Amino acid sequence: MVTRLALAVTAYCARRLFPADRDARDAGPFLAAFEQWDWGLYLKIARDGYFPGGAGPGTDGWDNREAFLPGFPTVLRAVHAVVPHWPAAGLLVSLAAGAVAVVALARLARSYLPDTGAAGPRRTVLFFLLSPCAVFLAAGYTEALFLALALPAWLAARRGAWPQAAVLTALSATVRVSGLFLAAALLAQFLLTARRPWRQAPWLLLCALPPAAYTAYLYLHTGDWMAWKHAQERGWYRDFHPPWEAWAHTWQAAFGEAYATGYALTSQAELLAMTGGLVLLGVLLWRRQWPESVYLAATLWALGTSFWYTSVPRSTLLWWPLWIGLAALSLRRPRFTTAWLCLTVPLSAALAYAFLTGRWAG
Fold first, then answer.
1. Per UniProt, what is the membrane topology (predicted)?
2. Residue 60 per-residue DSSP state
């Protein structure tokens, strides 16, 4: 709750001190600070559906909204029935989902760090909530809702509760495509279990149902079995490129002086996040944490094979091994916590300001 209050103060100050019109006498609605970037598309889907009035790919001004999965807009529409103000409904979804995610992350940390008592879970949650991209846990975005499903799913898998894990993973796949990566990790976890309960294996097939159903839905409206992928390509340049090309394009955007300084800085953040992800993957492989490696490797492959990197920093919120690993490191090296927080707290504030003023999409 303290982090949300801090973010509210940041949003208030951003609206008052840095309005779009520096001579403005009215800063506008407070919650308007959270109506940035992807929120507009989630709102349109929740309010109007995917293909309102027969519009769709090929029509003038089409916004490629089918690139966004239906889980979050569906929940948003349901909450809007109780909370009429759309931005407030979006923030409420993320607030409730974020609370669930934090509790699940703490329990997950306890299972990974059983000898640390309460210190391990607390430190994990601290690093997570003060991560550089923590603003997206509060905004009307998908990260909090995805984690509220994915983290309990992974906790259930570690406990051998396969039906529960499969159902939650399937639900997470309605929110973000990362749910498919979680499903792959879930399969790896099942196959590596010493005593595999084969009778429960069919439950894992549930994970494929939401993507299949959404693909069929898009085909019925567009006649294109690859409508989701093509929307990603049209709107966000997410057509396939070899990893080295994606790195080179992002490097050029970051350091080639061809773009404005703000855009160059966000590209530098993309490179830094991808490098951190590769280091984390190396650590997971070295520690033989195979299922977690599958999840992260699939994530990095998806993010690292577009024209250039997009939303890699925001994706770090979904890498629970990162936050648990940082907690474990901080317990071995007490000074690490101070150094990390001295770096990330001002960075979190700066990135929150950048998002709340429409300068950065994560």
1. Multi-pass membrane protein
2. T
Rg of the chain (C-alpha set): 20
186's CB contacts (< 8 A; 6+ apart) are 153, 154, 157, 165, 166, 169, 204, 207, 291
Q: Which amino acid is at 316?
A: T
pLDDT for res 24: 67
User: For residue 195, what pLDDT is reported?
Assistant: 82
> How many whole angstroms separate alpha carbon 144 and alpha carbon 138?
7
Integer Cα distance of 357 and 352 in angstroms = 9
pLDDT > 90 fraction of the chain, expressed in percent and rounded: 75
Find the helix packing angle between 86-112 and 143-158, rounded to 10°: 30
User: Which ranges constitute the DSSP H helices of the chain?
Assistant: 2-17, 38-48, 71-80, 86-112, 119-129, 135-138, 143-158, 162-172, 178-192, 209-222, 227-236, 243-255, 261-286, 290-303, 312-315, 320-332, 334-356
**335 CB burial (10 A radius; 0-12, 13-18, 19+):** exposed
What tokens appear for 186 in the block? 């879930």
Q: In 3D, which of 106, 110, 104 has the Cα closest to residue 164? A: 104
Q: Are 61 and 109 in contact (CB under 8 A)?
A: no
Tens of pLDDT, residues 129-148 = 999 999 999 999 999 999 99
- Round to whole Å and give the CA distance between 241 and 321: 27
* Interatomic CA distance for residues 240 and 218, integer angstroms: 21
pTM of model > 0.70: yes
Coil/strand/helix, residue 40: helix
Structure tokens at 348: 């979190």
Give the mean pLDDT of the chain: 92
